[in-house]
Write a structure and sequence with these properties.
- The protein is of the alpha+beta class.
- It has a four-stranded mixed sheet with strand order 1-4-5-8. Strands 2-3-7-6 form a four-stranded antiparallel sheet, with no helix packed on it.
- Helix 7 packs parallel to helix 9.
- The model has no long low-confidence stretch (mean pLDDT about 95).
Length: about 375
Amino acid sequence: MQTFQLSAEHREFRESVRAFANQRIAPRASEVDAKAEFPWDNFHDCVDMELPALWVPEEYGGAGADHVFQAIMTEELARVCATTALVMLISKLGMIPILYWGSDELKRKYLPKIAAGEAQASYCLSEADAGSDVASMTTRAVRDGSGYVISGTKYWITNAGISDTYTVFAKTDPSAGHRGISAFLVEADMGVKVAKLEQKLGVKGSPTGEVVLDEVHVPGENLIGEEGQGFYIAMGTLDRSRPTIGAQAVGIAQGAIDYASEYMKNRKQFGRPIAEFQGLQFMLADMATKTEAARSLVYQACSLVDSDPLGDLGKIGAMAKMFASDTAMSVTTDAVQLLGGYGYTKDFPLERYMRDAKITQIYEGTNQIQRVVVAKKLLS
């Protein structure tokens, strides 16, 4: 498998998004975390930059950019504000099932609105007793004439209460195990209710909640793919989305490195900058090396989404998400240490980076599950 190389266009795009993130997103990052409210100003600025359209195919009003462009966008936003990066990621996650398995009618109806920033989407897979064990879900979808009636509760739903559409996975045949799961596009005004919003450790500006569907009527044309195809769609979606979670983790790590290195050049102890202390230099070098390795693995996985989604993507994507998120947690923890007591206070941003890094090890498949995926691929 060849190593992926960035093009000149990729590098130019990075410079553009980095300048935008530094100027428009970074100044609000601390406030977004403190208020724990959806960052509408950041969202609208991203819409003005046409970032929601980046991944949407041109025929549906988007830019049709490859997944490495998407990773670069995510990385540069996360470098200054992990919440804003997540805001840009979640609608894509909610729409991947439509993009790859939905009917032409569904694509034409929903993708242009996402591209224009006129709508947002969520992905409803997890339940209280069906997180890593997706097949244990109890949400039901029952045929009702030409449509379906969906009842159940979904947990850990990103963008709950903000999104206009919810991609919901439900059992159409409870006796068939994972083969009895189907996927549906449910509009918020069809009766989706948010029962609770979580109080979280990090990415506080992105709401996470409990979504309730109580006999919600959904038209038959909102079935995504075919009945019984839901588990395949859910796993295929996560294979395609995990590499960009790795990109978010890389961005968080890089932001921590950037801040810590500048601090080291200005902070003096024993009459000289702490950047001159070899022990701290070694820490910084290790942080940067792990982050660069994670970045390369993420770009490789993203390139496979476009070129080989049925080949090595499952394994490499799991590796990328796992390694990048473990790296982000390690790097941000070390970055806090480099600032000493100051790193432990909210007057400095590194404690936020460390809190934000933690979720990347958990969502879109815990890192324990990623290791299971990798091991199964190696042993098959």
